[in-house]
Amino acid sequence: MQFGVAMFPADYAISVTELGRLAEERGFESLWFPEHTHIPVSRRSPWPGGPELPPEYWHTLDPFAALAAVAAVTSRIKLGTGICLVVERDPIITAKEVATVDLLSGGRFLFGIGGGWNLEEMAHHGTNPTQRWKILRERVLAMKTIWTQDEPEFHGRFVQFDKIWQWPKPVQKPHPPIVVGGNGPHTLQRVVDYGDEWMPNRVEPGPALAARIAELERLAREKGRGPIPVSVFGVRPEAALVEGFKALGVHRLIFSVPAAPRETVLPVLDQCAELARRYG
Question: Which of 16, 17, 36, 74 has the smallest C-beta neighbourhood within 10 Å, fewest atoms?
């Protein structure tokens, strides 16, 4: 089992470059940054994590710029978006950003994606929230075309472009792993449709997760695919949880560390690293 860490790279938190070096020194397999372009002041959409939205949601850096900075000061740790809000992004620009970070990191990028929860935030980007899953699918398929073809073109309902030239292409072939985040009823179908891995968020080990992993394996077989890795995002650093996930055959656990200064982050990072050494 692999172990990663995730943090909102807030402008008031430990620097992303220092966090990257510390995580790599402690042997973590991956480092993940989430994304929010902004948070609408209206705050109509309820935050799934509780009644009060933490300030890191509107203080977070752009994940691609932050991961590129980490790539420059590390050599082994994988670098992931956890998650990239593709429904708020132009797919041609995002395809270039993914390929650029993959190139600068020497093929260490993991493309975590999702549909998001903040409906007003999506609407500010011109995305109809009721259509976000269809938009997400088309944009991912369009990006795959850009990454894998010399003269890609795409003609869908939401994405339209004639033949283009775009380089760089990703170092990883055919492209960086697409890690589909989400816990919803249709998430597993999306994983087998256009993803490479599944990343449920803040779930517990137990019968419910075991049943969903079995369902994912069944859907993959029906598509003629092999086993699909599962990464659990937002794991608390507790031995019982790690043991439970390991018993289910989970591929990767991603611990959450607080968006805070170094003196707050470092003890949590060390606690997570000790569990990774014990169970990795």
Answer: 17
Q: What is the pTM of this model?
A: 0.97
Beta bridge partners of 232: 253
H-run or E-run covering 82: strand 78-85
Torsion over CA: 129, 184, 260, 81 (sign): negative
Per-residue pLDDT of the chain (280 residues; tens, 9 = 90+): 999 999 999 999 999 999 999 999 999 999 999 999 999 999 999 999 999 999 999 999 999 999 999 999 999 999 999 999 999 999 999 999 999 999 999 999 999 999 999 999 999 999 999 999 999 999 999 999 999 999 999 999 999 999 999 999 999 999 999 999 999 999 999 999 999 999 999 999 999 999 999 999 999 999 999 999 999 999 999 999 999 999 999 999 999 999 999 999 999 999 999 999 999 8
The Cα–Cα gap between 169 and 89 comes to 19
Q: Using alpha carbons only, what angle is made at residue 195 by residues 194 and 198, rounded to the nearest 5 degrees?
A: 145
Q: For residue 232, give the 3-state DSSP assignment.
A: strand
DSSP letter (8 states) at residue 62: P
Handedness of CA 7, 13, 16, 20 (dihedral sign): negative
The sign of the CA dihedral 82, 12, 117, 244 is positive
> CA torsion 87→12→260→37, rounded to 10°?
-10
**Buried/exposed 140-170: b ≥16 CB within 10 Å, e otherwise:** bebbbbbbeeeebebeeebbeeeeeebeebb
